[in-house]
TrEMBL record:
Pfam family, one: AAA_assoc_C
Superkingdom per UniProt: Bacteria
Keywords assigned by UniProt, alphabetized: ATP-binding, Cell membrane, Membrane, Nucleotide-binding, Transport
Protein name per its UniProtKB record: Nitrate/sulfonate/bicarbonate ABC transporter ATP-binding protein
Cited InterPro entries: AAA+_ATPase, AAA-associated_dom_C, ABC_transporter-like_ATP-bd, ABC_transporter-like_CS, ABC_transporter_ATP-bind, P-loop_NTPase
Ranges of residues in domain ABC transporter: 6-241
Keyword Heme: no
One GO molecular-function entry: ATP hydrolysis activity
Source organism per UniProt: Ramlibacter ginsenosidimutans
Family of this protein: Belongs to the ABC transporter superfamily.
């Protein structure tokens, strides 16, 4: 059996929301990284991926469960586990060489050896000759090479990478990723296990032996996907395209409800609404309805056509699914009959369909509408709903979720909103109809 490098059992973590209430970000996470594997961790924004990585790096403690590296409990950063950050995290006043030597200094390595090892690592990372440069003199891609060199120079047993390529342009990110895989696959580095957090499905499929998908609120491991294809992988091969499709499907799928509640299952009032707007929802729906897709599309192909990044497309797919306008299955997205009707409808009918779906499928919108109807004035301050959401979400999330509900609600003519007063109200015609009826 392969030896375990990192082992997490029943790990939980809560943070305090703005009003001091604890909010559980991770709950009962079990995960083992074994020798010889690259694992990619995917999940929606805010699902707790970085938190999990920081726990493994010993940068923050878990609240519950056990976290160990080669059988030893992790309570602080340990030699043997190194991390690469999205933001590069270089010291701007230190040279490239000094930045790379930092990790060795912390380990008490003598100056001569530090210099030698840093030189060799800079050479390996294609940075030979840049040792004396300051970070600001380098391009983003080269800066991240420094960040990676600083982690690798310590000869880490385990390398943790937190969206290490996402701040780079696509080509630069791909180049760097390929270089790291070459170092790994050729055995040029002593690292025995790599864990990468990513937003990018293609990146995960190109790199990993295993993909783990984290669900949100609280973060739990929702699915695991093994990729049994030798590296280097060809991104254009049918095999890799199929894998990307399947992972797309897993990512956009809402967790399957228990069969008994299939018809009635609805998210909670405090469900974190997907961060997308009506414009994007309409645009993606139209793209899907039009040729060449005519109602059904392969997700990566739709992504190419839409020219939107995954971070914007995923929430939009989720919104379409939530509202019953489209369904995602196995790497495809298909319009439902109602979604088809929506696509063919004029503006007024679109808004009506949207409003009805909102009331049926988004409990927060239904709650706002019901509370407004119960008020003689038909108006309510938005604070009330912010407070309601803050019972489960942190302040910023609560505000964002309400903002989305308000935008959707206005479009669906379910309620109106006075921006200056921060007041929600029933649409005028509802109040008139109630007064006369
Ligand atoms: N120090 C902290 N104090 C309070 N809340 C925090 C703290 N760190 C993270 N959180 C919250 O925990 C949740 C998970 O954050 P985390 O950064 O781990 O998610 P993520 O999946 O990495 O997101 P992203 O993909 O956007 O980077 C978020 O709601 C975040 O706001």
């Amino acid at each position: 059996m392969k030896k375990s490098l990192l082992d997490l059992q029943g790990v939980s973590k809560s943070f305090r929301t703005a009003d001091g209430a604890p909010r559980r970000v991770l709950d009962g996470v079990n995960f083992t990284l074994v020798e010889g594997e690259i694992v990619a961790l995917l999940g929606k924004s805010g699902s707790g991926k970085s938190t999990l990585l920081r726990i493994m790096a010993g940068l923050i403690p878990a609240d519950g469960g056990s976290v160990s590296y080669r059988g030893r409990s992790i309570v602080e950063p340990v030699d043997g586990v190194a991390m690469v950050f999205q933001s590069f995290a270089l010291f701007p006043w230190l040279t490239v060489q000094q930045n790379v030597e930092l990790g060795l200094e912390a380990q008490g390595v003598a100056a001569d050896e530090r210099q030698q090892r840093a030189d060799a690592m800079l050479e390996l990372m294609g940075l030979g000759g840049f040792g004396g440069a300051l970070p600001r003199e380098l391009s983003g891609g080269m800066r991240q090479r420094v960040g990676i060199a600083r982690a690798l120079v310590t000869n880490p047993d385990v390398l943790l990478m937190d969206e290490a390529f996402s701040a780079l342009d696509v080509l630069t990110g791909e180049g760097l990723r390929t270089d790291i895989l070459e170092l790994w696959d050729s055995g040029s580095i002593p690292t025995r296990g790599i864990l990468v957090v990513s937003h990018n499905i293609e990146e995960a499929v190109m790199m990993a032996d295993r993909i783990i998908i984290l669900s949100s609120d609280p973060g739990r491991i929702r699915s695991e996907y093994v990729i049994d294809v030798p590296r280097p992988r060809n991104v254009d091969s049918a095999q890799v395209r199929t894998l990307i499709d399947e992972v797309y499907g897993l990512m956009t799928m809402r967790p399957a409800p228990a069969p008994a509640v299939l018809a009635t299952v609805a998210p909670q009032v405090d469900y974190r609404l997907p961060d997308t707007d009506v414009g994007r929802i309409e645009a993606v729906l139209e793209l899907l309805a039009d040729p060449p897709f005519l109602g059904r599309a392969d997700l990566p192909k739709l992504a190419d056509e839409a020219e939107l990044p995954d971070e914007e497309l995923f929430p939009t797919y989720e919104a379409l699914g939530l509202l019953g306008l489209a369904q995602v299955e196995k790497g495809d997205i298909a319009l439902t009959p109602l979604g088809q009707r929506f696509a063919e409808a004029g503006q007024a009918l679109r808004q009506e369909i949207f409003g009805q779906q909102l009331l049926t499928h988004v409990p927060l919108a239904a709650r706002i509408r019901k509370d407004l109807e119960a008020e003689p004035s038909g108006t309510l301050k938005e604070e009330r709903f912010i407070q309601l959401l803050e019972e489960a979400l942190e302040a910023e999330e609560a505000e964002r979720t309400l903002e989305i509900a308000i935008e959707w609600g206005r479009y669906g003519e379910v309620f109106e909103y006075d921006f200056n007063a921060g007041v929600l109200k029933l649409p005028d015609e509802t109040i008139e109809a109630e007064a006369t009826g």
